[in-house]
Design brief:
Elements lengths: L1 H23 L17 E13 L9 E16 L2 E12 L2 E17 L2 E9 L20 H7 L5 E10 L5 E11 L17 E17 L2 E14 L2 H4 L2 E13 L6 E15 L2 E15 L4 E11 L7 E12 L5 E9 L4 E12 L8
Antiparallel strand pairs: 1-2, 1-16, 2-3, 3-4, 4-5, 5-6, 6-7, 7-8, 8-9, 9-10, 10-11, 11-12, 12-13, 13-14, 14-15, 15-16
Length: about 350
């Protein structure tokens, strides 16, 4: 009986492959499926070279030109409406490069109407900027609130997320995720790294966001996010943490190549530790204007408390000018001033891309 069943299954698979091979001759293949024998993915390289001037004498990157990151992207469809994205990166940490799987996930673009799924290691869809890789943001460094509440690389986890596009007259989507992030031990880190905070262990996230036009050339997007987990040193501190976020983005297109963007995010951290409860706030506000295909400028204001009992505040203003040489290569000048420390930083950044890879920008 098993022998006959196996024969039937084999015949079904052969017939199914024959049908798909006939269809492939008539339909233009998707990116990443450009050839039946090899089925090669799209391959890209992204580089970030940045020079920094600083008035802070303890800054390791001060007065240096450094390769901050080299990223290799491998992307393609593995089946209709199922694609794989892998981003391998070499990040600079002080004097050393560290290899890292930045992201590696499979996307099921449509399970049923409106429902999608991603599984793997992902920049979590929390707020507006966390899911965008740092070299594709409209400024050189990460907003301080994200670093204070999620860590140097933001909220990145291994797990699964479900997205549902609601059947409404306007765009509205809900994303729910479950993740696993490794914790940290004080004895494994130097003194500076032990002062960083983030989420760890089992992390649960949710995001509800919507966008709608205000006119023919303008759009408003609103979102709310939440992440619940332990703190990154939970094995020593036995702490629980929740981070709530609200974001608002306004866009205006005066002409074909002009764009005004006004983006804001507010974060609120609730942290429970044995000695009591902490309630910390942080936000950033970014105003950017694109003059034409090649030039844009922006201002970003940062204000944030830290995540520890000794409450320290950061208050800074950044000015940014960007020249877009091509769609994948930019030169950026950014100057920061920290009002609390009365210090400045200046960045000259070159981001280049080779290949078809690009991230969602805004």
């Amino acid at each position: 009986m098993c022998k006959y069943l196996f024969t039937v299954i084999l015949l079904f698979i052969t017939l199914n492959n024959f049908v798909f091979s006939q269809d492939d001759q008539e339909v233009t293949p998707l990116p990443g499926m450009r050839g039946t024998p090899s089925n090669l993915p799209d391959i890209s390289v992204i580089g970030d070279i940045t020079g920094k001037l600083s008035s802070e004498p303890t800054d390791f990157d001060r007065n240096k030109i450094l390769v901050r990151e080299i990223e290799l992207a491998l992307q393609g469809y593995i089946y209709p409406e199922i694609r794989a994205d892998v981003f391998l990166a070499m990040h600079r940490h002080d004097e050393h490069f560290e290899p890292e799987i930045c992201e590696a996930y499979v996307s099921f673009l449509r399970i049923i109407n409106g429902l999608s799924l991603k599984a793997g290691k992902i920049h979590v869809d929390y707020g507006k900027i966390n899911k965008v890789h740092e070299h594709h943001r409209p400024y050189t460094n990460q907003p301080v609130a994200l670093t204070n509440f999620f860590g140097e690389h933001g909220l990145v986890g291994e797990g699964v997320t479900l997205g549902y596009l609601m059947p409404l007259p306007l765009f509205m989507q809900i994303d729910i995720g479950a993740w696993r992030l490794e914790g940290k031990h004080h004895h494994e880190e130097d003194e500076e790294k032990s002062l960083t905070f983030g989420l760890a262990d089992e992390v649960y996230t949710g995001r509800l966001w919507s966008s709608f036009p205000l006119g023919e050339t303008s759009e408003l997007e609103l979102g709310a996010s939440v992440a619940a987990a332990h703190g990154s040193h939970y094995q020593e501190h036995q702490d629980n943490a929740k981070v709530f976020g609200v974001d608002l983005t306004f866009k205006l297109w005066p002409s074909t190549y002009e764009r005004l963007i006004f983006q804001n995010e507010i974060f609120n951290l609730h942290r429970e530790i044995p000695v009591g409860k902490l309630n910390r706030w942080g936000f950033y506000s970014y105003l950017g204007y694109q003059f034409n295909k090649y030039w844009d400028a922006g201002l970003r204001y940062d204000w944030s408390e830290n995540a520890f009992p000794e409450n320290k505040k950061t208050n800074s203003l950044s000015g940014i000018i960007t020249n877009r040489l091509t769609e994948t290569t930019v030169i950026r000048l950014q100057c920061d001033y920290n009002f609390g420390l009365k210090s400045y930083n200046a960045f000259l950044q070159l981001v280049f891309g080779i290949g078809p890879h690009s991230h969602p920008l805004q």
